[in-house]
Every structure is written in structure tokens, then in C-alpha cells.
Specification:
With 263 residues, the chain is of the alpha/beta class. The relative contact order is 0.15. It is globular and about 45 Å long. The chain starts with a strand and ends with a helix. Strands 1, 2, 3, 4, 5, 6, 7, 8 and 9 form a nine-stranded mixed sheet that branches. The longest helix has 18 residues. It is built from ten helices and nine strands.
Length: 263
């Protein structure tokens, strides 16, 4: 059995979609991950996520977490949300600050508000010294300008669900910090040859496996609710893209997860 960690998922959203309750969901998960990183990225989710992290493990699966406000929820960032984030970052299972960032994909986005909230959260995150989980979608110029300003040799960053360009990936790798690229089920889709081409070029020691569950269920589960148990399907396609064994993928990515999150 391969040891793997889902480095980015949203357990509450999975349960909302499936109607399952927490413990039975973990009991039925097969293959079960060694651990998951549950990401709380909306203030409305913070309380539930705090309770989840306090469990530390369910059915042998270790629970880690991250807290932040997603760019698409920038309007919900407030002093109260900030205070809750700071309080939750003290929980023993918290391994990162995020997901935070920029998302210019949807019509009507407010770039100024997103940048303001992103910069404010970066200021907090950098002070904590925690790794950062960044959501960057169709905002490469603004994102790189900000990354250049905060870059340092001490920074650890997970560019979550990477679907950006080859050029942006190479720019990120030119920075001084330790940057990792999250690979999701999007790697497996029929229409995502570009993502596979880029994944082939990302150094293996810079890749993390994640599901972003409940979203982006990999082939052959398209149309179903994604869960952490689908990581091996993503890993197999990554192995094919890299022309290496799935064992080598799991071994390398497990080390990358330790380097990024310390777990």
C-alpha cells in the first residue's frame, strides 16, 4: 500500500455534496490516505474546521489544516475573520496559512479588492512563519509582481491546483523561495494536454499531490464527487507523464510534502 497525503481538500464540502457524516466517510475511504490537509477558506467554515482539527485523526487518517480567505470570498474578509484565522493558526494541527491569492477567472471580479485582501493576509502569514497555500488563477502578472516582493530563501509556498502557463511556472522556479506546484485531477482530463505538458517540465521535487476535493474528480471518476482516495489515479497519470514508476512518484512527493508542511 502506498503512503500518500492529500495536501489540499475541503472535507466539509465533500460531506455537503454527498450527504455523508464525518466518521462513516473516513471509514469507507479506500484506499485511505496517510493524512489529509483540510483547507478552510471561507469564514463560515472556520468553526466546523476547528472542530475537525481537534479530532487529530479519524479512522487512522491524520488531520492537518490550513486557514485563510479564498480570493473569491474577499468580500467576506473582515476584522472578525482575521481574528478567527489568527486564533485558529494556534491549533496544533495547523500546518499552513491559506488558501489565499488572486482569481480573475469569473466575470465581474474585483481585482483591487482581491489584491488588498491578499496583501493583508500575506502580511499576517509571513509574520507567522507558516507555509503559504496560494490560489492563483488567470492573474499571473499581478501574482508574480507580488511574489517577487515577498520572496525570500525562507519562504515555503504551495501553488495550489496549478493550471497556469509554462512561462509562469518557470518564473516561479526562478525565485529564491521553496515553491511547490499542486497537481490535481485536472491532470487526467481529456482536454488538458497543456497541463500534462507543463507537469512534465516541473521538477519532480517541486510537485505535491492534491485533490481539491470535492472538485476535479480524476478520470475515471469524472462527474462524481472527488475524495482523497482518488490521489492514486492522479499519481498514475503523473507517473505516465514523467515516464517513471508510480512508486517513484509516491516516494518523491511524500518527501516534498514533508519539506513543504513538515508532516
Amino acid at each position: 500500500m502506498h503512503h500518500f497525503i492529500d495536501t489540499h481538500c475541503h472535507i466539509n464540502m465533500i460531506l455537503d455534496r454527498t450527504g455523508e457524516s464525518l466518521e462513516p466517510f473516513f471509514e469507507q475511504m479506500e484506499p485511505a490516505p496517510e493524512a489529509i490537509v483540510h483547507v478552510a477558506c471561507h469564514p463560515a467554515d472556520f468553526s466546523w474546521s476547528r472542530e475537525l482539527l481537534l479530532k487529530k485523526a479519524i479512522n487512522g487518517v491524520k488531520i492537518y489544516g490550513a486557514f485563510g480567505v479564498h480570493p473569491l470570498e474577499a468580500k467576506n474578509y473582515s476584522e472578525q475573520a482575521e481574528a478567527e484565522i489568527l486564533e485558529n493558526l494556534k491549533l496544533p494541527g495547523v500546518v499552513a496559512f491559506g488558501e489565499i491569492g488572486l482569481d480573475y477567472h469569473y466575470e465581474g471580479f474585483n481585482a483591487d479588492l482581491q489584491k488588498k485582501v491578499f496583501l493583508r493576509q500575506l502580511e499576517i502569514g509571513l509574520k507567522t512563519g507558516l507555509p503559504l497555500v496560494l490560489h492563483m488563477r488567470e492573474a499571473e502578472d499581478d501574482a508574480f509582481e507580488i511574489l517577487q516582493k515577498i520572496d525570500s530563501e525562507n519562504i515555503r509556498v504551495h501553488i495550489h491546483c496549478y493550471t497556469g502557463t509554462m512561462d509562469f511556472m518557470q518564473k516561479i522556479l526562478s525565485l529564491k523561495g521553496n515553491y511547490f506546484f499542486g497537481v490535481t485531477g485536472a491532470l487526467t482530463f481529456n482536454k488538458t494536454a497543456t497541463i500534462r505538458e507543463i507537469a512534465a517540465e516541473i521538477p519532480l521535487n517541486k510537485i505535491l499531490l492534491e485533490t481539491d476535493a470535492p472538485y476535479l474528480a480524476p478520470v475515471p471518476f469524472r462527474g462524481k464527487t472527488c475524495t482523497p482516495a482518488m490521489i492514486p489515479n492522479i499519481a498514475q497519470v503523473l507517473a505516465n507523464v514523467k515516464n517513471i514508476s508510480i512508486e517513484d512518484v509516491f516516494k518523491a512527493v511524500r518527501e516534498n510534502t514533508r519539506a513543504m508542511y513538515g508532516v
